[in-house]
Every structure is written in C-alpha cells, then in structure tokens.
Amino acid sequence: MDIAAIIDRCERLYRDLDLSHVHEWKQRTGGKAIGHMPVYVPREIIHAAGMLPVGIMGGGDDIEIIRGDAYFQSYICHIPRSTVELGLAGKFDVLDGMLFPAICDVIRNLSGMWQMMFPGKLVKYLDFPQTFNEVGRAFHRFEMAELALALETLSGIAATPERLNRAIALYNDNRRALAELYDLRAEHPQQVPTAELYLLLRAGNVLEVAEHTALVRAYMQQARRRQRALHDNVRVVVTGLFCEQPPLSMVRAMENSGCYIVDDDWVLGARYLLRDIPVGPRPLEAIADAYMTDTVATATRYVDGDDKGGYLVDQVRRRRAEGVIFAAASFCDPALLDRPMGQKALAEAGIPHTAFTYSENTGQVQVIKEQAGTFADSIKLWGAAA
Ligand code: SF4
C-alpha cells in the first residue's frame, strides 16, 4: 500500500460512524468488542480478555445532533452529545460494553446515563488514583483487577498472565511505533503532514493493535523516502485536545496557516505511557503500576506540587518548537482550568503562545486558520506572539 492508500483507508475508518470495521471483526473472529471514551484505558486488559478495544471519540462534524442535545445543558462540551446521539441511533449496538475513564464530571455523568440507557450492556466507570503513593497504587491495582474480572466474565476468556504479557508486548510495540512517528514528524515535519499523522492515530481506535502497528510502520517507511520541500513555517506545539477532537478540517487549517505542528496531545490515550510495561510474572500489576509512574503529564491526571505547565516548557524545548497553541474544546474544564498555569510557565520561559476554543463540529475553521497564521507571522517577525 502506498501512502495515499494508507491514508485513504484511515480516513474511511475515521468517517465510519457505523463502526463497520468492528462488525466485520466480530463476524470474522466471533469475539466481543468494548468501547471506551478518552483519554486512557488499559487496552492490554481488554485485548487479553479476547476482545477488541474500540476508542469512541464522538461524532466529529459528520452528524447532526438532535436527540443528544436534549440530554445536556448548553454550557458543556460537545462530545457527550454526539456520543449519546450515536448511541440512541443504534450505532454502538455492536459494542458489548463501554468503559468511562474518570477524567471529568461530564464523563462521570455520561457513565451513569449510559447505564440507564443501555441496561443490558457492561458499563464501567474507571476511577483513577489521585495520590501517587502506596495507597493510590493499591487502589489502582484493585481497580484493574476488578476491570479484568468484569471483562473476563463478559467474554468467557481468562486474561491469564500469558495472554496479558502477549498483549503488553503488542501495545508496547504500538507505542514505540507511534513515538517513532512523532519523532519523525518533529525531525522532518514536511515528510509527515499532521493531518496524515492524525488519521493514522485515529485508525488505532478500531484496528487490532498488531495491524495498526504494521500500518504505522508501512507509512513511516514511505514517508522517509518522500521528496517534499521544507517551508519557512513556524514550529508549534498544540495542546489541550486530549479528549474531544477537533474536526479534520481544523487540523488541516492549522497546518496550512504557516505552522508545522511538531507535537500535540490528541488521541493521547494511545501514547499515554512513556515507557514499555515490563513483561513478567505479575502482568496485571505491571499494567497498574505503569499508570502510577510512567505516564504523560496532562490536565486529566493529577500532578503534584507547583509544576503544572513545566512539562509544556520541556515539550517545547525537546521538540525545538517556537510557540504553543492552546486549543481546548469549548467548556472543557480540565483543559481550560490548566491553561493559565501552562501560560504562566510559558511566559516565564519567554515562549510565545496563543489560545482558542473549538468544538468537534466547528464549521468556522477560517477564523482559526487566521489566528494560527497571525500567530506564526508574529513569531517570524518579532519572535513573540502579538
Ligand atoms: S472535552 Fe473536556 S469536559 Fe468534555 S468530556 Fe472531555 S475532558 Fe470532559
């Protein structure tokens, strides 16, 4: 497959709100499928219990919200509305369960609503520790053991240490491939357009992990050989998009505004763990412990002390970025509450930044393109945002 065919396949998967690929997978394997909301869930455990993890990221700009709006007040983000809309339309009937990781009140409430709306399905709210000490570790190990039990009961397949270790190895490999892809883009942003990288990431929401890893590697192999001119664009980090995703048109608009995006936090769950989970005699505990120590810093994860924003400065320096774009979903509490701390850290480090909000069905991307373009121009002209 050449790059065009790979990206075409990814875009078809991205636009497939009927989850036809999941239907096909179930027919082919006889297995069950488990949906999960952003940001992070331990997909290794779902895989080890013989099921397909399916990342659910709302409806993007491809559906009209009619019933979903009736369930929510106006001043919250968009992703729960489109998720409910899709659920009520039967698009998620193919899923045998849904996991709701604790990231904010919206997802917590959605998990309760899901239990009432789909009483026959497995619905699990995954609580995550807020203290990263031995108490938090014991709590998280317990949560992971409970999750494994619920999944095994549903699938009838035991997540044995052998199966868990195999799943760990597969997901470690997937994270390594994605890290390589991000490094390649940061090194040669003209070779890896961000819209392509984004579609590759989104494909990982539905493809089996080994197939996704192979697809990412096939893409990189060809992207390295591409002959594309390097433009005089400004290198930026984009942050705040870890849950509700921007429409693809917005990703393209940012990229076409004179910016090279050299790091970002969309589809963050796939890259949440920074190091390999060790394979060994107690794999379930290893999965739980990896969350305690080896994850990215993000707004939905408690960070101790006053160092909120410090990771952003590190990220900018590591990627040799010249500025930061804060792009949060409208009314996204975690992103918007973290933003001032990030801005403060950047201001102290003399790093230019700009900010805007979006929703997954934002239609007016021209305004965003102009803002990103003005930001890029101001950096080129004066080395700082206007
Ligand atoms: S976009 Fe923000 S507020 Fe909305 S569900 Fe996601 S994390 Fe919560």
Distance between the termini: 44 Å
What's the average pLDDT?
94
User: What's the β-strand tally?
Assistant: 8
Structural class: alpha/beta
The set of bound ligands, ions and cofactors reads:
iron/sulfur cluster
Portion in strands: 5-15%
The biggest beta sheet is recorded as: 4 strands, parallel
Secondary-structure blueprint:
Blueprint: H1 3-15, H2 20-29, E1 32-36, H3 43-48, E2 51-55, H4 67-70, H5 79-88, E3 97-101, H6 105-117, E4 122-126, H7 134-155, H8 161-187, H9 194-203, H10 209-223, E5 234-239, H11 248-255, E6 259-263, H12 283-293, H13 310-318, E7 323-329, H14 333-349, E8 353-358, H15 365-382
Helix pairs in contact: 1-9, 7-12, 8-10, 11-15
The structure holds iron/sulfur cluster (SF4).
Detailed description of the structure:
50% of the residues lie in helices and 11% in strands. It has helices at residues 3-15, 20-29, 43-48, 67-70, 79-88, 105-117, 134-155, 161-187, 194-203, 209-223, 248-255, 283-293, 310-318, 333-349, 365-382, and strands spanning 32-36, 51-55, 97-101, 122-126, 234-239, 259-263, 323-329, 353-358. A four-stranded parallel beta sheet has the order 2-1-3-4. Strand 5 (234-239), helix 11 (248-255) and strand 6 form a beta-alpha-beta unit. Helix 7 (134-155) crosses helix 12 and helix 11 packs parallel to helix 15 (365-382). The chain is globular. It binds iron/sulfur cluster. The site of iron/sulfur cluster has 13 residues, from helix 6 and helix 14.
